[in-house]
Every structure is written in C-alpha cells, then in structure tokens.
Structure prediction request, 339 residues.
Amino acid sequence: MQGDDTVYEQGVIDGRFRVITHLMTVGATPIFPDRTSLAYRAYQMIIVVSAYLTFITAVIGILKNFHDEGFVMEAARTTFTMINVLWTHFFTSRNMQGVRNLVRMAREWSELAGRVADKKKDAWISRIQIVAWRGSGFFYCIHIIYLVLRIVSQSNNILFYNSWIPFETETNFGYYFILVVQALGSILYACLVFAIMTLFASLLLVVCSELEMLQGILMEMKQNEGEPQSAVKESLAQWVKHHQQILRYLKELEDTFNVVLLGPLLSVAVILCLTAYTAVTISGNFVEIIQICLITSAMLSQLQIFCYFGNELTIQVLNETYTYFMFLLNFSNNSSEHK
Prediction:
C-alpha cells in the first residue's frame, strides 16, 4: 500500500485537491501520509497530543471554576469549538481509507480524456481550496492577535485558552511550556476547522461535476436523433454504467462522512447559542468580542458549506433527473415511429 499511496499522493498534489491535501498535512491529518518520514511522524504526534491535551485541560478548567461564570462562558466557547474540530479529526482519521478511495476515484474521473473541460463545477473546487487556505491562515493570525490583546489588556501569564494547569505558571518555564502546547494544538484546530469541511464540499462538487457531465451527454444524445438506435443504446449503456459508479461514489461518501459531520452539526448549534448569550451579557470587553466574532464566523462558515453545496447537489440531481426523463420520453417516441 505504501507505494500505491505515494503514487496517488503525487497525482493529488498536482491536481484539484492539492491545497486541501497540504492543509490537512499541516493539520497532522494527512490523506496520503509519507510513512518514510520520521520527522513528520514526530511532528504529527506532537501536534495531535498538544491538541488533545489542550482540550482536556480546558474541560478540567471549566469543572474546577464552575462558580466563575465569566471564566466558564469564555472557556466553553473555545471548548465546544475544540470538540467540533477534534470530532472531525478523530472520525476522519478512523475513516481515512474511505477518504483516500473518494479522492482517488475523483482523480481518475478527472484524467479521462475530454471530460474536465466541459465541467463548470470543477472551477468551484479550486476556489473553495483557496478559501480554506486563506480562512485557516486568517483564523490562526487572529488567534495570535487575540492572545496579544489578552496579555496587553489584562495581566501576565495569559494563555490562548482558559484552562486548568497542573503546575504553577508563575515561572517563565511553566508559562512558556503551556503556551507552546496550546500554540501547537491551535495549528490542528486552525487547519481542520476549514479543511475537512471544504474537503467534503469538494467531494460533493465532484459528484455535481459528474452529474453535470452526464446531463450534457444526454442533451447531445437527444439532439443527435439521426443516429442509429444501436449507437444510441450503446451510448446510453455507457451513460448508465457511469451513473452507477456515481451512485457507488455517493454511498462511499455517505459511509465515510455521516459520523464525521454529526459532531460539527450538533456543536455548531451549541456554540452559536453560547456566543449569542455572551454577546448580550458582556459589557465593553472588546477582547471577548473579538473571540466571539472569530468563533461565530468559523461556525457560520461551516454551516454555509453544508447548506450551499448540499443544495447544489440537490439541484444537480433534479436537473439530471428531468433531462433523463425527457430523453427517455423522446427515445420512446422515436422508437414508436420507426416501428
């Protein structure tokens, strides 16, 4: 499998999924990992352990400071955001073979001669990767600015997240150790909060692209009414065969991402409620307002991805169904006339 993954990885990096592949690699969740790189494996372990330690200490911090409403509300916003990301990381990692199969199949379809140029939806795959890359970079930069503002406006030894610390942070060593752990964990959060959702959207767009191509083939077959029926039947058989491949692709997509997307959908609802509550209760704390705006925008972006690209798939399926029905009706009428 190692050689197979390496070959496909090179193809993916050169193709439509290059940016998302790099983003997930930086986020310690590579689609096609380089099993020969000990340095990357060490990097991956450090990032993942830091992210989960940051989450655990944040939960303990909430439980130990439950009497402090301000501390709990601020910590809860970030903690549920961590749940959102860590859920997708955990279940995507468990179902990574399914993700690889989907990316490979999309790549194989794109390499078939004369197929890419006619697909309008392919352009969206490139655009959404740029959005994911810029969104993750913006998310992390604002995260750094938020920490600086906390340090400037409040007191010393301010961390990225409110959390429980198992030892004193009064010393420089203890403070910088925790700060580095949270900063490394934030790399995973910043990358995956957009990467996995945009990967899912890109895979949906692959389906839309293929359905759009099939719709175009049907329209061409309908216009070429002078062709012999044997040629039309052969073309239709190829059309049905590819449509069955798309159905298998959709089944693989559903099996791979159904659990992955459950956590984000539930956590988005909780996070939006928390941010709405704290937005109307805080008074003049501009640092918290920055965090609320950052988290709210990230969660609404995820929700927009679900709704918009899911709607695009629904529209494309309806269009193809209508075109197929009209083709069969026209084909049936032509067959009756030749009898």
In short: Residues 130 and 168 are 42 Å apart (CA to CA). The chain has one domain: 2-338. Residues 2-338 form one domain. The chain has nine helices and no strands.
